[in-house]
Amino acid sequence: MPTGFGRLWTAQSVSSLGDGVSHAALPLLALTLTRDPMALAVVTAAGTLPWLLFGVLGGALVDRWDRRRTMWGMDAARAVLLATTAAAAALDMLSIPLLAAIAFLLGLGGLFFDTAATAYLPDLLGRDPALLERANSRLRGAQTAMSGFAGPPAGSALLAIGRAVPLLADAVSFMLSALLVRSLPVLPRPVPEIRESLLRQARAGASYVFRDRVLLGLALRPAVGNIAFLAVETVLALFAHDRLGIDTFGFGLLLTAEATGGLLGAGIASFLGRRLGTGSALSCTAAVEGLAILGLAAAPNPYVAGLALAVCGAGMGATMVLGPSLRQTIVPAHLMGRVASTSRMLAMCAAPIGAFLGGWLATTYDIRTPLYAAAVLLLVMTAVTASMTSNRRVEAALRAAAAAATADPVGAPAHSASKDRARESAADLL
């Protein structure tokens, strides 16, 4: 791996630890201000709004800007924002509207940082598929470990010391990340000059996803998956309490089992891709997720439920390594930000649908019904997208991307039309 990747991995690990701290601290801070469920929901929802409102436009801006500078600038801005919020907490000036605004601005910074990092990584690794899988496996594993295991307990413990302490800790993590990212190598910008309008560029990025079957299949998996997983997440605590007899501590262990499976899945993703082919591996992991949720719905005791969630987490972990790695390999550099943000926006827009579906099914029918519905939805999605991301289509896309990169290694937009025609011709042959 290039030396620069180690710094990027460290930066994202530190930032993920801070994210885990604030992920636990912000809801708890909101609880100190109100017990109104709707007010608490506003704070939670505010963090997802930037993706719904600015997802595709944000990707177009990232494709215009220097990606390394965008990453460290967003981290520095979030550090200042959190330090200011910590001062407000110390002065007892926090309010629900202020916390909602903070969550929104943190989400907006995350939109630009995540999109820029997704676009920067393939250029840093020379668009090598094997290196991208290894890199995404390490990044995903670190994110799960830091934001899923270490961060939330640390956030709760720091909050017990003082309301400003977890916010200040997260600010420090973002500043450290910004310094590390700023030391990364400066890479050539794929687009030296922009003449089209921002809206037209955003539309071009979105249409590129919908016109390419492989990319559309990669985008549909997390979108449909989010509907299913949010339907499960909405009722999981109630299901665990009422049907499995799990208390608060046991529920935490249940979630830990899922995170542990996610670490395992991220670790074996490259192995699955080599043995089965990336397309077949993606179909297998999606099917595993659906079958695991089916097992969770039918679980007779907490141990089976924990095993089912661990298996589901493994499938999700592997999918979230293989899918982005493939996308980063086959998408031209000048479109990477827009394609990545379009896919992420589709997934984020699907999440509220899943939450509403889960609540409605549980209220109308039974607490297990959302789980069975989610399993069916995942399995149907697997069948629909299997042909879209088959090994043959994936290999054709990889060959076309390699040929385009050889013809134009910089990825300037003057050659994008020939690249697109090569990709479409390769897909048409299948």
Stretches where pLDDT falls below 50 for ≥5 residues?
411-430
Question: What is the succession of H and E elements?
Answer: HHHHHHHHHHHHHHHH
Structural class: mainly alpha
Radius of gyration: 21 Å
Could you describe the 3D structure shown?
By secondary structure, the protein is mostly helical. Helices cover 83% and strands 0% of the residues. The chain is globular. Mean pLDDT is 84; it is low at 411-430.
Main traits of this protein?
about 425 residues; single chain; globular; about 0% strand; mainly alpha
Topology of this structure?
Layout: H1 3-31, H2 37-46, H3 49-64, H4 67-90, H5 96-124, H6 129-161, H7 165-182, H8 198-211, H9 213-242, H10 248-276, H11 278-297, H12 302-330, H13 336-364, H14 369-386, H15 391-407, H16 416-428
Helix pairs in contact: 1-2, 1-5, 1-6, 1-7, 2-5, 3-5, 3-8, 3-13, 4-5, 4-7, 5-12, 5-13, 6-10, 6-12, 8-9, 8-13, 9-13, 9-14, 10-11, 10-12, 11-12, 11-14, 15-16
